[in-house]
Amino acid sequence: MKTIVWDIDDVLNDLTRSWFDSVWKRENPEMEMQYEQLTLNPPHELLGMSREAYQCSLDRFRLSSEATEMKPDSSVLNWFNKWGAEYRHIALTARPIKTVSPAVSWLMDNFGEWFEGFGFVPSRRLDEHPKQPDKKKRDFLAWLGKANYFIDDHVENIEGSDELGIRSFIAAQPWNGGNMTVIEILETINRENAKNLPVNEK
Length: 202
Prior knowledge:
The protein has two domains: about 5-15 and about 70-195, Rossmann fold (3-Layer(aba) Sandwich); about 15-70. The protein has eight helices and five strands, in the order βααααβαβαβαβα. It has helices spanning about 15-25, 50-60, 65-70, 75-85, 100-110, 135-145, 155-160, 180-190, and strands spanning about 5, 90-95, 115-120, 150, 165-170. Strand 4, helix 7 (about 155-160) and strand 5 form a beta-alpha-beta unit. Helix 1 crosses helix 2 (about 50-60) and helix 4 (about 75-85) runs parallel beside helix 8 (about 180-190). The longest helix has 13 residues, at about 15-25.
């Protein structure tokens, strides 16, 4: 059985879009910036903010009830209902330590019946001093040694994964130049594993 490692933010959920729509646009109603124009991530320079101000705003959103209530993409949820049990699933996120617990809760509330593991590498903040050994997602994947597929929205997170024998995909977002949605990535994974899937469901 193949193992898929999943980023959470902006892959399994719409964190940045949700923050942009419900926080930044509300606080900056005079600005005409659209989500599709966020060609950098972090997008603070495009939004006229300092990096620290952006991080503080995003982290507050991560801890909010609005973030808790984010809905997963229905097509991805449908894929899990149909195919999820044919793979092992592990989540791998990069977040500040104080915001990791809400990510676990969101994942379990929406995809908990399929996920068997959760890992994170800490996003650095001035008020946190993490002691985890892994600095990058690649470090975690090398230690894990079980991943067949890795889905993320940041190109730098998948760099070097092929050296680990991992087939990686970039989930399309304005900042990464990706050309495949998450569901298109999953359909590709299914095609590569067609011979291992139930015959009547190929």
